[in-house]
Amino acid sequence: MLAIQNLYRSFLLPDQTRLPVLDIPHLHINSGEQVVLIGESGGGKTTLLHCIAGILTPDKGTIELDGIHITKLSEAGRDRVRAAKIGYVFQTFNLLPGFTALENVRLGMTFGTGKHNVARAINLLERVGLGDRMHHRPGALSVGQQQRVAVARALANKPRLLLADEPTANIDPSNQQKIIDLIRENCREEGIALLLVTHSMHVAGQFNRVQQLEQLNRVCQSTAADAH
Amino acid sequence: MNLFHIAWRNMQQRGLATILTMLSMALGVCMVVLVLGISWVITESFSRNSNVGYNLIVGARGGSLQLTLNAVYYLSQPVGTIPYELFLEFLPGDGRAEEIHRVGGKIEEPDRKGLYSPYMSGGFAIPVCLGDYFGRFRVVGTTPDFFEKLQYGEMNDLKYRFASGRNFKDYDAENGYFEAVLGAQCAAERKCQVGDTLKTTHGDPEGDGHGQAFKIVGILEPTGTPNDRAAFINIEGFYLMEGHARAFENPMHPDADKEDVGEGGAQLPPRLALEKRDITAILVRTGNPMFAMNMQTTVKKSEVAEAASPIFEIGNLFSNFVDPVRYALLAVTTVVCFVSAISILVSIYNSMNERRRDIAVMRALGARRDVVLFVVLLESLLIACLGGLLGWLAGHSLGAVASSMIEYRSGVRVTFVNTITYYELWLIPGLVILATIAGVVPAFVAYQTNVSKNLGA
Ligand SMILES: Nc1ncnc2c1ncn2[C@@H]1O[C@H](COP(=O)(O)OP(=O)(O)OP(=O)(O)O)[C@@H](O)[C@H]1O
Ligand SMILES: [Mg+2]
Known about the structure:
The complex is a heterodimer. Helices cover 38% and strands 24% of the residues of chain A. Chain A contains nine helices and nine strands. Chain A has helices at 45-53, 75-85, 101-107, 118-127, 143-155, 173-190, 201-204, 213-216, 218-227, and strands at residues 2-12, 18-29, 34-38, 60-65, 68-69, 86-89, 161-165, 193-197, 209-212. Chain A has a five-stranded parallel beta sheet with strand order 6-7-8-3-9, with helices on both faces. Chain B has 15 helices and 14 strands. Chain B has a six-stranded mixed barrel. The A-B interface holds A 46, 50, 53, 55-56, 75-76, 79-80, 82-84, 86, 88, 90-92, 94, 96-99, 103, 106-108, 110-112, 116, 153, 157, 165-166, 169 and B 1-2, 5-6, 9-10, 12-13, 357-358, 360-371, 451-452, 455-457. Bound molecules: adenosine-5'-triphosphate (ATP) and magnesium ion.
């Protein structure tokens, strides 16, 4: 489902030097598989997710998503793939403040080629327990409720892969588990592969496959070696 | 959810700024509509009067435009006078001889036909004397034919009708030669009724008053022509007033002029002899309109008088005076629209900083670059077009609200619909272009937004 080969990504710093962030020889995720990604802060987890989503382009290497080499696509092509195949949940939720909960979920299916299905948007909000708050704006929702809207939005376009970047980092512990359960249940039901980033060992412990970034990423290995 | 919906929500989010910029665009468009409407009213009221019911004005040599302004609109000072004898030359058939015998006077060859009578072909000629005032209104000395033979209206098919009273008579047993008829607006403003008397002042509104009083015998219905703003007196009475006879050399014996009285006036009080009479203009309508042109050339060639075609002169007046003013006003209002387009630009541009994250999120949800660009353009378009629609409605509503005042002043009936002109169609591409110019800068900011950097996490 997701196959990464020799992915290399660096950032150009203001002093014109290049900061290497990612150097991943190999990463593979199967259809419907649920993977948790853990690692040091600044290790490049968000950068990796952005590369997979086609928001960033790698300097080298290939990313194959559902049989499509997204690294070979134009920007518009990557946008199309993202709209069709990827769901994204952010640490800061990133709901649009001017839109109601339902509209935020509907935005998740607006830019793809798929059918604009309002019934599915309503159904998703009901599934995350917000059937009665559909017409509220994010400002009128609690933090936990906002993240549930964000989960519903990420699922709206029936993605093949859900990327979740620390989805519970800003949420109180009692709600954290609910969100994680919600994400995992929905992915299982719809056969969606899941790549979830977390700093919580408690959350990571619930997954069958725990991927440590330091093991994947040669950049981290070399910096760790430098430190010794 | 379509892109309109997204643009609409973005507009709502900026609430007050959206409303203010929309109102400024509404103001601009409202002004455009008003300028167009006003110039339409002016055109309409002028063109109503270009069909004055006569096709030639003959007057003293000088500017033919001034002659037209004088005779049609009662504007500007009279150019000068022409002898009454000239008027006689225009009378059709044996009209010249009949008039000489009726009024009396020492005229050479009293029995020949008028020089221009062959052109008349069943038409008519009416003399007018201008120069006196009744308050701010011009006094027109003329014959009863003015209201009997002249017609007005776009189709030139409307007869003058009296709201009260009747037309003045050449001679009335009770009032003699001193009868008057008032235009509707003149009567309303001077608060005159049938039975009241009127005294004219000489030369200008502040001039000396004439002693002679005229009995008001009729008040016209509103016509929407300059005749609403004039007082009409019997030309015979006009000549009997002090200072109105030619060769008035002897102020001590004004009645000396009235000695030469023809046989026709035997039973009636004496009239001023024909050869002592001057007139300001002759209004000529030829039975066959084609003859008017020939007549104009002949009169001009004679070098004793000017002949002007009112339709031609009014058309000229338009292209020389009214059109430039209209274009100047339109230019000013276009600038207003342009300024409000800039206010749209500034307002959206200022909001772009707060919106970068929202745009990045939309991009992360799969929106292409050109889609976020288009959403911002759409927002600018919606503001400009909704504002424009608002201004358009306001402009025409204002016209409709002021319609009774406009009709009273100009005689033009204004409704919401009839002021809509084809020119307003230009508003649509105009607004679209302005909105695009205004939207393109912030839209480009949206287009350039770096998704990865603005996502936050
Ligand atoms: N646009 C950029 N320009 C320069 N450096 C960048 C840029 N974006 C990220 N970096 C650097 O890349 C490295 C990886 O960043 P990234 O956000 O991927 O880390 P992360 O693993 O997600 O960390 P965290 O757990 O704190 O979210 C960091 O050192 C960061 O400073
Ligand atoms: Mg991160």
